[in-house]
Specification:
There is one protein chain. The protein is of the alpha+beta class. The protein has helices spanning 6-15, 26-50, 74-80, 83-92; strands at residues 17-20, 54-55, 58-59, 63-67, 97-107, 115-118, 132-137, 148-151, 168-169, 176-177, 186-187, 195-199, 203-206, 215-223, 240-244, 247-248. It has a single domain (6-248), classed as q2cbj1_9rhob like domain (Jelly Rolls, Sandwich). The strands form 4 sheets. Strands 1, 4, 5, 7, 12, 14, 15 and 16 form an 8-stranded antiparallel sheet that branches. Strands 6-13-8-11 form a 4-stranded antiparallel sheet, with no helix packed on it. A hairpin with a 6-residue loop joins strand 9 and strand 10 (176-177).
Length: 258
């Protein structure tokens, strides 16, 4: 918990986010980056075999969301269950935390690879307790390569920071859009190994990658309790214990049954 200050915890409660710079060890960043590209290569071969240029919010040779591949990947699993991530969960969610979702977000060099303003909760689509998003930079982030922008609470037009705004689907990209104001948000200009920590209620977006290199990030999301489907009959995503009563759970701890 020494890594996260009282001021950052207060910022999370007040603004919906805070930033931890250069906290992921270089060797871990390198390993996650290598796994990322292995999955991207596999994803591209799959889309080529199917003759598809678009698959949901994935766009061939432009941007990729490679989700939930950690179950058979020790590198990713060890990071998701690390003391670093457990500390972030304790500081934001409390004594209990569950791995809800994880995914690589990759942008190739493409001036149209932006991502629209949204709340992560908007992609669930029904009310649930706010969860935690940890956006881990695997490359040095800049405005030029399409870093994320965060819109603090109080600047998004909502009266209640716990509200989930209505989201519409943007034609052409299939992005969900929940904020239509003029505030550009605050860009995260951070080095590789940094983590932008924000609530699933926090609006964020990202710009286009205008460089010649990939812009890679790894998104790890944790919930304070299992998130269920709207009718309560099944898990919405995953619910792998990370913290139980404040104690970090090792990988392989029995998951919540779906």
């Amino acid at each position: 918990m020494d890594l996260i200050s009282a001021e950052q915890i207060e910022q999370y409660r007040r603004d919906g986010y805070f930033i931890l710079e250069s906290v992921i060890p270089d060797v871990v960043v390198g390993a996650l980056r290598q796994e990322c590209m292995r999955y991207v290569d596999s994803f591209e071969r799959e889309m080529e075999a199917e003759g598809r240029l678009t698959q949901g919010i994935n766009h061939y040779k432009r941007r990729y969301f490679v989700a939930n591949r950690s179950a058979d990947n020790r590198i990713m699993t060890d990071f998701l269950h690390s003391e670093l991530m457990a500390d972030i969960c304790r500081a934001t969610l409390g004594e209990d935390a569950y791995l809800f979702n994880e995914q690589y977000v990759v942008k190739a060099a493409d001036t149209d690879s932006k991502f629209a303003w949204h709340q992560d909760s908007g992609y669930v689509g029904h009310y649930h307790r706010a969860y935690l998003s940890c956006w881990c930079a695997l490359d040095d982030m800049s405005i030029e390569n399409g870093t994320i922008y965060v819109l603090p609470y109080g600047r998004d037009g909502r009266n209640n920071s716990d509200d989930i705004s209505d989201h519409t689907v943007e034609a052409g990209t299939n992005d969900k859009v929940g904020y239509h104001g003029d505030d550009p948000g605050d860009p995260a200009i951070v080095p590789a190994g940094s983590i932008v920590v924000f609530s699933s209620r926090t609006f964020h977006r990202s710009g286009a990658n205008r460089t010649d290199n990939y812009r890679r990030s790894y998104l790890a999301q944790y919930s304070p309790e299992p998130i269920m489907s709207k009718d309560g009959s099944k898990l919405w995503q995953r619910a792998e214990p990370i913290l139980r009563n404040g104690v970090r759970c090792q990988p392989g701890y029995p998951p919540i049954a779906s």
